[in-house]
Amino acid sequence: MTEEKQTEKLLQITREDRRDLEKYIQEFFEFLPLAVSIINPLGIILDSNQAFQKLTGYKKIEVIGKRMEDLFLKKENFRGLLKKKISGLTRKMNLLTKEKKKIPVNMAISIRKDGEGNFIGYFIALSDISAFENLRKNLEKKVKERTKNLEIKTQEIKESRTALMNILEDAEEAKKEAEIERDKTLAIFENFPEGLLFFDKENRISSINPKVKNFFDIEPEKIIGKTIKNLREFPSLSPLVEILGTELKGIYRKELELRKNLILEVSTIPVIRIEEKIGTLVILRDVTREKTIERLKTEFVSISAHQLRTPLSAIKWTLRMILDGDLGKISREQREFLKKTYLSNERMIHLINDLLNITRIEEGRFLYNVKKQDIIEIAEEVINSAKERAQRKKLRFEFQKPRERIPKLELDSEKISLVFQNLIDNAINYTNPGGFVKVSVKYLKNKKEVLISVKDSGIGIPKDQQKRIFSRFFRGVNAIKTETEGTGLGLFIAKNIVEAHSGKIWFESEENKGTTFYFTLPVSEEF
Q: Residue 67 gets which letter from DSSP?
């Protein structure tokens, strides 16, 4: 082998070693955990490693060719460092990532030179010092807080010493005032006109007043300290325990008939102190006299209504016979007068029927013929009889039936028909010509109930009068102006009918925009 060939071979080996070294350096540069970039003398980024890309959020293709100063919050500071052309410079800088997030970094600058020693740019190394900065700030903050707390505690100790002296001076006076307040509270409790029982948070009786002793004929010392469960041992208290339950449930004005001549109204009130329940107060009000008056009033209304019903029915059929020509011909003028009389008589009969329904509701004998019925058939019967009136008034009347078949419901068809009639009559009466009335029936299978709604575009119910809408004899001011005739009993009766069937009734309304009444009826058996 000639000397020339040996030299060539050595050069080839050297070149391969150089390529391997350059590849190693490049791989080392790429996977170096320190964020490093290479920039030219003008500050243009020529290359960057993966750590640099991860820190800045820029991909390599995005960052190459970008001005390095654009990555810092204060560009002028970076430019000033480059001008110095000094290796080993380090500065704290604020880096701006691709997402414009500000990261505190420690920046180190090293000058790049070629093989001949010529200046060709810089190496820029960045290390994230966010954690260090946060730690430093937290330490400074804690030092300040501790210092402030020490100052506050020192001041508090001084103030506490002064306050303690004042408290000691006022303690005796406060004790006397507390005893006076206790005596006042005890006097009120003992002389309260209603019966009072106080249960502590463990449902043990801690206090009762003399009224309770009179109601139940029992000595206080026998039941003080007893739990609600233990009160079952006393026969006279058993009816009260049945109403209250073992967990002392919330009750408002629930009736308890202890004896023929003693009816109590039971209510419970949770006693709360600083958001913590400390017990339950049971109030027993003697309503015997009110109930007696109410019963006498109901009996009077019932007797009066029955006495009026017979002559009114006779008048009705007599007038009907005259109008139908059974008693001979009558003139047009006579017919008009008789029709007005007939309609007035019908209104009186309707009022009497409403009054009788109210007495039956109050006496608890309202539902008579409860059996399985088809709610759609009942609704259609009432709707068909109301369609003619809606058409005369030029109302758009719609009945939306459910898509699926509804099971038959346990109900009194006559009474449920009355609910439909009252709600639909109101919708027609209080909706202006050109409006609409929509009745819909839905089967809520998951809730095991049927939902009925009657919607109109009528006059609505004023917001300040909505709480009284189900009260007896109540009619809204705008309803009276629109329809002078009316008793204010229809919704009261409808509510009681629905609730007697274990259903619920409610409404949504906005004045001059319309009203929607809803009521539900339970489904006892499915298909």
A: B
